[in-house]
Design a protein that fits this description.
- With about 200 residues, the chain is mainly beta.
- It is built from no helices and 22 strands.
- The protein has strands spanning about 5-10, 10-15, 20-30, 30-35, 40-45, 50-55, 60-65, 65-70, 80-85, 85-90, 95-105, 105-110, 115-120, 120-125, 130-135, 140-145, 150-155, 155-160, 165-170, 175-180, 180-185, 190-195.
- The protein has a 4-stranded antiparallel sheet with strand order 4-5-6-7, with no helix packed on it. Strands 8-9-10-11 form a 4-stranded antiparallel sheet, with no helix packed on it. The protein has a 4-stranded antiparallel sheet with strand order 12-13-14-15, with no helix packed on it.
Amino acid sequence: DNNLLIYESNGLYGLIDFEGNKVLEAEYTNIESLEGTEKSIVVEKNGLKGIVNSNLKDLVVECKFEAIETLSLNSEDDGYIVLLNGKYGIVSASGKTILENNYQEIKNVTGNSMYVVRDDSGLKLIDSNLNTVLANGFEDIVSINGENLIIKNGDLYGVIKTSGESKVPVEYEDLSYATDNYYVAKKGGLYGIISINFKPES
């Protein structure tokens, strides 16, 4: 991080600012930046990990997780996917629990306060109140754009709404959100632009 430096004392690590002021006491076995973020630093103590926000210069997520990774960066939902006792959950950038550690998998796909999770019933889309939004009609969800989901069945992609209504048939080799109602699609090795109503654009 550009604002803080790691220092070592008696084999443990802490953080100081450029003026030499202690931000974090040297009581951690490891300190490293979190991939995909500018201001989040992972600290480790007793084999468990937490998060320091370098802007706030404070520990925002306690050292209690086995693993931490960033949530999707192109999302309004900032936070971290965290692993505890072999189960995944989500905490916000301020340390608030969004989803308890109850899931076998949480995909790095989020948007509109919805999350793609896997539990004993399989892969599904849930909201922040833990309500199941959609649980069938797809093998995978790769993107959330408002109420529209890019899904994958086998090796092909399409778009459905959170209601389950099909918007773009699952017949494309590649599909990514462009803007508004438009998607970049690949079919037969060629790329083009399609609208959410499946009308080719010239």
